[in-house]
C-alpha cells in the first residue's frame, strides 16, 4: 500500500512516460465502467503538466511527486518520455477529436521538439537529439524512432499549412531510422545511434550496440505505409523480418 518510484529516477522522481501515458487507459476504463474516478485522477495529472512552466516549451522526463516541480532538465522523445507525446495525440483521436486540451498540448509539444531537438546531419539525415540542461546530446535512441509514425499520424489535423510538413518530417525520421539499421553489419538497428565525431546514424558506444526486438522502427514503417502507400516501407519492414529470423 505504499507508493514508490524507481530509486535511479533522479531522486525517486516520477517518470513522464509512465504518469503521462496512463490517461489513455484510465479514460477508457471510466468509459467502460461508468465510474469517473479513473479519468478524474489522470486528468488532474494532465492539468498539472499543462499548467507547469516548461523550459523552452519542453517536458522534462522527471517530476518530483512531492513538490510537483520538474526534478531535472533532461528531455528525451525516446526512453523516459516517448509515450507521453504519443498518447496525447491518441487521446485526442480516441475522443473523436473532442479532447481539445490533448490536441493543443500535443501540437505545442512537437513544435518545441522541432525547434529545440530536431536537427539535420551534415549529409541530410533528420534526427531527434536529447536535451540536458540546455545542451544537446546528438544521440537518438531506437525508442525515439516511433516518432516518425507519430508525426505522420497527426499530420492531417495539424495547424493550417503544416499537414504536408509533418508528413514529410515523419518520412525523414523513418529514413534516418532505416539508415541506423542499414549501416550495421547485421542490418539490425542499435539501441542508440549518434551524430557526432564524424559519424551519422551509427552506434559508437559498446553499451548501445545491441538489439532486443524493439518495435519502434517497424511501427513507423507501418504508419508511413498506411498513410502514403509508398512500397519502400513494406520493403524495409520485410528486410527487418528477414534478418531477424
Automatic annotation (TrEMBL):
Span of the signal peptide: none
Domain of life: Eukaryota
Cofactor: Ca(2+)
Gene3D superfamilies registered for this protein in UniProt: 1.50.10.10
GO cellular component: endoplasmic reticulum; extracellular exosome; Golgi membrane
Record pathway: Protein modification; protein glycosylation
Molecular function per GO: calcium ion binding; mannosyl-oligosaccharide 1,2-alpha-mannosidase activity
Keywords per UniProt: Disulfide bond, Glycosidase, Hydrolase
Top enzyme category: hydrolase
Annotated protein name in UniProt: alpha-1,2-Mannosidase
